[in-house]
Amino acid sequence: MRFLTQQKIVLASGNRGKVAEFQALLRDCNIVPQSELGVVECEETGASFVENAILKARNAALQSGLPALADDSGLVVDVLDGAPGVISARYAGVGATDQDNINKLLRALGGVKDNQRTARFVCVLVYMRHADDPCPIIAQASWEGCIVDTALGENGFGYDSVFWVAEQQCTAAQLSPEIKNTLSHRRQALTMLITLLKNNRI
């Protein structure tokens, strides 16, 4: 399939953690982060993960002239009505660090019982052949878990250190990158996207 072996594809992300994960997940592909091509990030004005992923893919394809793969992902906490959601990366404000966002999340969950802390990581992937592609390929997946009070683990990024993975009995940040990449929302969405690309003969 050309998507996997021949095309150069711009990855519409400047997040170093995401770039590292995609390069590990797509090690046989010619994936180039948009930062290496001088692509200026677009403003994420969408109200949903899907809208933001489309905005980012179109922006990267337009500026690079290449097919683009965009990810929009975040943490959805049920008791907080889906927050942090699409503003997960800037939950505590523009320029917030991962720790700032975690601190705000834990404050918001203060007093909430363990069995009410259900959450999931959501990932939407969008592949656009070019900036004017009328039929982008879209895949969406989620990774179920819950939020713990104490950050554990040194791996991962974002909210990984407070996201409890029940089947592994640890947080996402305590998983090795290899194990995380078999379980994560990003892996699930990517597997789905590749199937869709094959079906569309990309």
From TrEMBL:
Pyrophosphatase that catalyzes the hydrolysis of nucleoside triphosphates to their monophosphate derivatives, with a high preference for the non-canonical purine nucleotides XTP (xanthosine triphosphate), dITP (deoxyinosine triphosphate) and ITP. Seems to function as a house-cleaning enzyme that removes non-canonical purine nucleotides from the nucleotide pool, thus preventing their incorporation into DNA/RNA and avoiding chromosomal lesions. Belongs to the HAM1 NTPase family. The active site is at D72 (proton acceptor). NCBIfam families: RdgB/HAM1 family non-canonical purine NTP pyrophosphatase (TIGR00042). Its EC number is 3.6.1.66. It catalyses: ITP + H2O = IMP + diphosphate + H(+); XTP + H2O = XMP + diphosphate + H(+); dITP + H2O = dIMP + diphosphate + H(+). The lineage of its organism: Bacteria, Pseudomonadati, Pseudomonadota, Gammaproteobacteria, Methylococcales. Binds 1 Mg(2+) ion per subunit. One of its GO terms (biological process) is nucleotide metabolic process. The gene is yggV. One of its GO terms (cellular component) is cytosol. GO terms for molecular function: dITP diphosphatase activity; ITP diphosphatase activity; metal ion binding; nucleotide binding; ribonucleoside triphosphate phosphatase activity; XTP diphosphatase activity. Its cofactor is Mg(2+). InterPro entries: dITP/XTP_pyrophosphatase (IPR020922), ITPase-like_fam (IPR029001), RdgB/HAM1 (IPR002637). It holds the Pfam family Ham1p_like. Keywords: Hydrolase, Magnesium, Metal-binding, Nucleotide metabolism, Nucleotide-binding. Substrate binds at S13, G14, N15, R16, G17, K18, S73, F157, G158, Y159, D160, K180, H185, R186. This is dITP/XTP pyrophosphatase. Mg(2+) binds at E43, D72. It comes from Crenothrix polyspora. Homodimer. The keyword Hydrolase applies.
